Amino acid sequence: MQQDAPVRLSRDEAKRRVREAGLRATSPRVAVLQLLVAESRPLSHSEVVERLSGRDWDQATLFRNLVKLAEVGLAKVVSRAGGISRYTASEGGDDTHVHPHFSCQSCGAVDCLPGLSIQLPKDGAWRDAIRDAELQVVGTCPDCRASA
Ligand SMILES: [Zn+2]
Ligand SMILES: [Zn+2]
């Protein structure tokens, strides 16, 4: 699968963003934000737990921090494929995370499909409706196809 060069958010920069959002910059909170920024795909709670498994934080702590980051606009749920919320980092404001997501029926991973952008209507009731809609493509992802 083609991977873009990972975007890195320094620990200090992550702390600054967390504090600017009015939260205390606790270690797990900062680490979760750094992880969401570094990942090119939306992550579920269990994927966050898996990726931060070397650390001392329990699942509940990581879950609370995901929810907290979403509450203050630093993260956003962009997919609910299979009833599972998946999060990406969010810059807040004019969010441009408007594209379909690919949900693999084999491995369960959800990927962004930024190449498939959606033309939002300029105005009218449908603009906000489509912005909030979950557009999901389902099938077998390239990784699973390659290993089939
Ligand atoms: Zn797959
Ligand atoms: Zn996406």
SSE map:
Elements lengths: L10 H10 L6 H12 L4 E2 H7 L7 H13 L3 E5 L6 E4 L11 E4 L5 E3 L12 H8 L3 E4 L2 H6 L1
Parallel strand pairs: 4-6
Antiparallel strand pairs: 1-3, 2-3, 4-5
Helix pairs in contact: 1-2, 2-4, 3-4
The structure holds zinc ion (2 copies).
The site of one zinc ion has 7 residues, from loops.
Q: How would you characterize this protein structure?
A:
It is a single chain. With 148 residues, the chain is α+β, with helices and mostly antiparallel strands. The protein has one domain (11-147): Winged helix-like DNA-binding domain superfamily/Winged helix DNA-binding domain (Arc Repressor Mutant, subunit A, Orthogonal Bundle). The chain has helices at 11-20, 27-38, 45-51, 59-71, 125-132, 142-147, and strands at residues 43-44, 75-79, 86-89, 101-104, 110-112, 136-139. The chain has a three-stranded antiparallel beta sheet. A three-stranded mixed beta sheet has the order 5-4-6, with no helix packed on it. Strand 4 and strand 5 (110-112) form a beta hairpin. Helix 1 (11-20) packs across helix 2, helix 2 packs across helix 4 and helix 3 crosses helix 4 (59-71). The longest helix has 13 residues, at 59-71. The protein is globular and about 40 Å long. The two termini are 14 Å apart.
Number of domains as seen in the coordinates: 1
CATH topology: Arc Repressor Mutant, subunit A
Highest-level CATH class: Mainly Alpha
Count of alpha and pi helical runs = 6
Could you say which small molecules are bound to this protein? zinc ion
Low-confidence stretches: none
Spatial ordering of strands, largest sheet: 1-3-2
Under CATH, the homologous superfamily reads Winged helix-like DNA-binding domain superfamily/Winged helix DNA-binding domain
Strand content range: 5-15%
What's the mean pLDDT score? Answer: 87
Structural class: alpha+beta
Number of strands: 6
